[in-house]
Amino acid sequence: MSSVARQALRLVVMAKAPLSGYAKTRLIPALGEHGAAALAERLLHHTLEACVKADLGPVELHVVPGPSHPYWRDFPLPRAVTLYGQSQGNLGQRLWHASGNARALGQGLLLLGTDCPALTVQRLHIAAQGLQKSDAVMYPAKDGGYALLGLKEVQARLFEDIHWSTEVVAQQTLDRLWECGMRCQRLEVLVDIDEPEDLSSLPQAWRASVDVG
Question: pTM of this prediction?
Answer without folding.
Answer: 0.93
